[in-house]
Amino acid sequence: MLGSLYGWFSVDMGIDLGTCNTLVCTRGEGVVLNEPSVVAVRRGTTQVLQNGNAVGLVAKEMLGKTPGSITAIRPLKDGVIADFDITEAMLGYFIRKVHGRSRLTRPRVVIAIPSGITAVEKRAVYNSAERAGARRVYLLEEPMAAGIGAGLPIGESTASMIVDIGGGTTEVAIMSLADIAVCESIRVAGDDMDEAVINHMRRTYNLCIGPQTAEAIKIEIGSVFPLPEELTREVRGRDNVSGLPRKCLVSSEEIREALREPVDQIVECVIRTLEKAEPELSADLVDNGIHLAGGGALVRGLDQLVSKATGLDVHVVDDPLTCVARGTAVYLDNLALWKDTLESDSDGY
Fold it and tell me: Maximum Cα–Cα distance for the chain, whole Å?
């Protein structure tokens, strides 16, 4: 009876619980929340600042700028939960925010998870969501969510291939008949690209920059394939020798070289997945091509690089940043159709 009462006051939601950003979709409304997966707490505790409201955008603004008594934490690393209590607090905040801060909410939740995580890591996601206020939790593999969100014909007897490059993991999957035929997950993605930019600035310019600056460089001038017109950007940071603030000018050519190692690992993962596919699936991909999703899909020239390496047509899906979240919402809309599969996932935890 109580569960039914909570259901009346709750809006079911799909969540893309990402290393860098968390997106929430609700039925009929699309993406209603898109905030950084960051929480600000008192150092040495799990007490969230500002009466529990220092989460998401508010907390991200504090990254690298906090005094000794405060720390801004990203509770997910490589696509999985690194801090259980902080993740629970973050999820609870997002669920309440979507519901207008009402406490009388117990929504059903579909959460997208990396395909390569362990049973223990799945259990951590499930328990965090349940303790954060979810009435019922369903886990959906990210490649499936991305394929659904991209509108690929994954339910048909033809191969669809998705490469979802998030912040912590890259998911590569070939799907057919509403299931994953071949899949590979590696913990190399957007964060590794940012780290590569940080290392380049330190080695080449003796300049220390933070993750937010590195991400901005990647977005503004980053590329993995030669550009018709190369770009430049002024970068500010701390001189590693003098310790004083300094700036320098960086070009897209050198950032491309810096990104080579993580991007090569992603391309190799795509090739390995293709090599594992059955011949009939490979034949379908000659016509259907490869689809790129996730924030990493927006790096300039990535589609051209993957196409050159595989010989297949490569397409960046519409709005790749929200693709997984939109897929969870579609899955939620068709929960009755998929419920048997999802029940077996969640009942095991």
Answer: 67
